[in-house]
User: Fold ABC transporter permease from Streptomyces sanglieri.
Amino acid sequence: MSFWEYLGNRHQQLLTDAYQHVSAVFQCMVIATVLGILIGVVTYRSGWAGSLAITSTATILTIPSLAAIGLLIPLVGLGVAPTVITLTMYGLLPIVRNSIVGLRGVDPALVDAAKGIGMSRLARLCRVELPLAWPPILTGIRVSTQMLMGIAAIAAYASGPGLGNEIFRGIASLGSANALNQVLAGTLGIVILALLFDAAYVLLGRLTIPRGIRV
Assistant:
């Protein structure tokens, strides 16, 4: 069976796996983005706290993703839970780092001006600092998403959702007629989804970043 014939016969299952893959990555990115920005907001004013936050989240990336999922299985079981926890942890570093860098890069004169007109610290953060730091933060979110698209494939090891199941089935049946088709379909599917996600972030950047501060 050719690759195109395989896609025609399995398109329904591939679409389901692709939807689950996108859903898992998107939900984990939402959680990672909220946590990453909060960590950045809490730590960016302190040199040692910012360094600790970046070092801690960077340390997570030194743990092989397969090992991380394997260590979580005895604690939370198979399926969605280890997938969500692992992807969220792996998505933190670029967001935390770029949040801290972006917030520290805001011109102090603008913050002082906002303070001078009576803005509270929370108002300055929400209306001045975070909007100006948004371009690097969005870049961090884009980087995290690209990483998680690939790492999410490992979730199949823990019976998680996504196109990784197609890849693992192909690897497990190497030598059979459709093994290569399965691996290729899963891999190309992830690449296409990653490109679509990135295009969506480019559009989001054009809609949310004022022309004057676009990088």
User: Anything to note?
Assistant: DSSP finds nine helices and no strands in the chain.
